[in-house]
UniProtKB/TrEMBL annotation, chain A:
Keyword Mitochondrion found: yes
One GO MF term: NADH dehydrogenase (ubiquinone) activity
Membrane topology label: Multi-pass membrane protein
Catalytic reaction equation(s): a ubiquinone + NADH + 5 H(+)(in) = a ubiquinol + NAD(+) + 4 H(+)(out)
Recorded name of the encoding gene: ND6
Primary location recorded for the protein, binned into one broad class: mitochondrion
Localization (cell): Mitochondrion membrane
Name of protein: NADH-ubiquinone oxidoreductase chain 6
A Pfam family the protein falls into: Oxidored_q3
Residue spans crossing the bilayer: 6-21, 26-44, 50-74, 86-107, 148-168
Natural source organism: Loxodonta africana (African elephant)
Automatic annotation (TrEMBL), chain B:
Described purpose of this protein according to its UniProt entry: Core subunit of the mitochondrial membrane respiratory chain NADH dehydrogenase (Complex I) which catalyzes electron transfer from NADH through the respiratory chain, using ubiquinone as an electron acceptor. Part of the enzyme membrane arm which is embedded in the lipid bilayer and involved in proton translocation.
Keywords: Electron transport, Membrane, Mitochondrion, Mitochondrion inner membrane, NAD, Respiratory chain, Translocase, Transmembrane, Transmembrane helix, Transport, Ubiquinone
Family according to the record: Belongs to the complex I subunit 4L family.
Pfam assignment, any one: Oxidored_q2
Lineage: Eukaryota, Metazoa, Chordata, Craniata, Vertebrata
Subcellular location: Mitochondrion inner membrane
Descriptive protein name: NADH-ubiquinone oxidoreductase chain 4L
GO molecular-function term, one example from the UniProt record: oxidoreductase activity, acting on NAD(P)H
Length: 175, 98
């Protein structure tokens, strides 16, 4: 289990390097979608199935779809990919090198960073994973948004409502 | 600090560098901004789940709401730029150049 989470974590960072090295936005959007899916996998590795579903539905299915349509509007005739431009390829390789150094640093024994000890892959395993828990943590946490955190809910709802008007007025050039 | 948190913080730093460095398109920087928010969401969710503090699961959800508003406003600005100049190239934004 910890190997799966570890590999997903490494591929998550590789996906981030993929869109951060700025190819044409079509490929950047695709890389962000892949990273979002892997992030969902990492969250579900710690037992958070509700939050993983939120990533897929709200983040990928809501925000990335809007980004995808906007990118399709503002695209160019010859898109640059990671292999067609030396700058993009160089940035990608530099980021990949950073991640490889991180992995090598992880596997070279016990280390101490700001008072915490890490080393090896034991931290990726969640204790008590076997069997069902009596409280599904993230479901009840999400539900507490409506009971204990109702002011959060009111402010978030009001902000979404106002941001619709902001987007409409900004697009009509009435800043 | 457990290794997975350092990995996600590294992803955040990579997206931050990508936001601050412009190439030709403006929407690439907006994509890197979305990447920053995704890494913050993942970090918050993992922390809430590993500390077993149930009430703090609200924080990633609220973060996602604010991220959606920010993406909407950013895309609206991009649309205006695209309407004025035809494309969203960064080199077109030179009205304040001395």
């Amino acid at each position: 289990m910890m190997y799966i989470v570890f590999i997903m974590g490494v591929l998550y960072v590789v996906g981030f390097i993929g869109f951060s090295s700025k190819p044409s936005p079509v490929y950047g959007g695709m890389s962000l979608v892949v990273s979002g899916g892997l992030g969902c996998g990492i969250i579900m590795g710690s037992g958070g199935s509700f939050l993983g579903l939120v990533v897929f539905l709200v983040y990928l299915g809501g925000m990335m779809v809007v980004f995808g349509y906007t990118i399709a509007m503002a695209t160019e005739e010859y898109p640059e990919t990671w292999g067609s431009n030396v700058v993009v390829l160089g940035a990608f390789l530099v980021g990949l090198l950073m991640e490889v150094f991180m992995i090598m640093w992880l596997f070279s024994g016990e280390h101490e960073l700001m008072g915490f000890y890490f080393g090896g892959l034991e931290d990726l395993m969640v204790l008590g994973e076997e069997g069902f828990e009596y409280v599904r943590e993230d479901y009840s946490g999400g539900a507490s948004l409506y009971s204990y955190g109702f002011w959060f809910l009111a402010m978030a709802g009001w902000m979404l409502f106002v941001s619709i008007f902001i987007a409409i007025e900004v697009t009509r050039k009435r800043y | 600090m457990p290794y997975i948190y350092i990995n996600i913080i590294l992803a955040f730093v990579i997206s931050l560098i990508g936001t601050l460095i412009y190439r030709s398109h403006l929407i690439s920087s907006l994509l890197c901004l979305e990447g920053m928010i995704l890494s913050l969401f993942t970090l918050n969710a993992l922390l809430s789940l590993n500390i077993n503090f149930t009430l703090s699961t609200i924080v990633p959800l609220i973060l996602l709401v604010f991220a959606a508003c920010e993406a909407a406003v950013g895309l609206a600005l991009l649309i205006i730029i695209s309407n004025t100049y035809g494309l969203d190239y960064v080199q077109n934004l030179n009205l304040l150049q001395c």
